[in-house]
Amino acid sequence: MTLSKIGRILMALVASAALGLGMTACGGGTIGYMWVLGTQYNQITAFKIDDYTGNLTQSPHSPFSSGGTNPQSIVLKAGGRFVYVINTGVAATVSTATGSAGLPTTSTQGNISEFSVGGDGVLTFQQNFSSQGTTPVWAVIDSTGSFLYVMDKYSPAYCGAASCTVTPTNSPNFCTIAGCTSAGLTIPSDLNGSITAFSIAADTGRLTLVTNLQQKVGSVIATAPNYNQQLTYFEVGAAPTMVKISSAGCMYALSQTSLYPLSVNSSTGQLTVPTTGTITLSGAANLSSINTTGSYVYVTDSTNNTIYPLTSNSTACSLSTVSPGIVSNLALTSHPVQSITSSNGKFLYVVNQSSTANPLTPANSTISAFTIDSNGALAPLADSANPYAIGAGPVCVATDPTNQYLYTSNNTDSTVTGKIANANTGILSDLSRGSVFPTTGKPSCMVISGNI
Questions:
Q1: Using an 8 Å Cβ cutoff, are 21 and 29 in contact?
Q2: Is the predicted pLDDT of residue 371 greater than 70, yes or no?
Q3: More exposed terminus of the chain, fewer Cβ within 10 Å: N or C?
Q4: Nearest to 229 by CA among 245, 243, 212
Q5: For the chain, how big is the Rg over CA atoms in Å?
Q6: Alpha-carbon distance 399 to 409, whole Å?
Q7: What are phi and psi of 176, to 5 degrees?
């Protein structure tokens, strides 16, 4: 039987429409884009996400240069038009200090690279920016998309010595003075990291420094230059690794055993230190990640293989433990490094780099799934397949814009693993057409945007 002329025309129109929407006979069109950082070649691998299968297809011209060295963190401005990559840089082969104390040197400085997003998820480099401290390690954008916060391991005031004695007439950067005269005053060490705040231009995505309303105090050495002036950064605790903002408007900078809270002004981008002060988590050995969802905060401890379920107080940004307290990770898991909450707030997924069967190698990396009750408490998800196998050495986790799929970036085997996430049961299952996708090399973190 032959098709009528009208039938042939209708089929051609349908095929043309499908191509226009990016659809094929085997897929449901592109629902979003994924960008995966890689440290092997300082690259960004871009993928298109298929609606029907969750499969990943590399975008044209991918991979792209990260704009710097050692990319570790990537964030997306609300609306999906601009992406920012945090390139940590590389420490010097032999770490030395300036003078008798001070900041470790680096052989390659870190930076912030801005990219605009085009069709098919193609990235176009725009400009590099610098944070105020040294060795940027993480970034976060506030819920309004107006401000970018970049966290540095070392603040501009960092001083690696126990103390440093100086004379009032010397340079204001006291801890970089070689020798330090014994007749002068003693300045205590400052081992803190810092956060640089930027406002984001809505039209171009360009960054502008937000200065701190706090000032350098002149009480120690009143005649020293640069005192009684606004700071260009916000100090946090020592050796910070990650920072997140809760819906209560509280920022939490994570370090090895504690969190440093800051209150976020959504109108000005200003950060202020609440009366709570540093929050130390009892029994913590090596805090590895922080995840905020609503008023709840979930922190993982990679050494103890535990999870802290916490509630954020918006008034003082304090944290209180959700009853019944610290939760043990699932059996046969170890070294949790990241977590993410489902969009409906019912499930928590914890990414584990290894297992107790072979803790020294990431050959048995997994995702642990937990249910979240109305009070924020966790319980293991009842599924015989839980924890779920993924690629080796996961670093980051993200969900697609429709919350159908969950993905991990896996550093050891240079892959991305995809899973179907059941919104009603929380159960994870393999994608229908294969769940493993190769990246360019040694992925670190990732971010996902909706179709723009």
A1: yes
A2: yes
A3: N
A4: 212
A5: 24
A6: 12
A7: -105, 15
CA distance 186 to 172: 13
Q: For residue 109, how many other CB atoms are within 10 A of its CB?
A: 16
Query: How many residues are recorded in the chain?
Result: 452
Residue 27 tokens read as 């897929």
How far is residue 339's CA from residue 300's CA, in Å, rounded to a whole number? 8
- The domain segmentation of the chain, as residue ranges, is 30-91+107-162+187-450
**Confidence band of 15 (pLDDT split at 50, 70, 90):** very low
Q: Is residue 217 helix, strand or coil?
A: coil
Q: How many CA atoms lie within 13 A of 452 on its CB side?
A: 21
pLDDT tens, position by position, 47-74: 999 999 999 999 999 999 999 999 999 9
Which segments within 246-305 are labelled E, that is strand?
A: 250-254, 258-264, 271-272, 279-280, 287-293, 296-301
How many angstroms separate the CA atoms of 116 and 196, rounded?
21
Per-residue pLDDT reduced to its tens digit, 377-394: 999 999 999 999 999 999
Phi, psi at residue 338, to the nearest 5°?
-155, 160
CA–CA dist 452, 448 (Å, integer): 12
**198-230 pLDDT tens trace:** 999 999 999 999 999 876 554 343 334 445 567
State the CATH class of domain 30-91+107-162+187-450: mainly beta
What residues contact residue 225 under an 8 Å CB cut-off, 6+ apart? 172
pLDDT in tens, 76-89: 998 889 999 999 99
3 state DSSP class of 180: coil
Q: What's the pLDDT band for 288 if we cut at 50, 70, 90?
A: very high
Rounded distance, CA 296 to CA 287, Å? 17
**If DSSP codes are grouped into helix, strand and coil, which group holds residue 245?**
strand
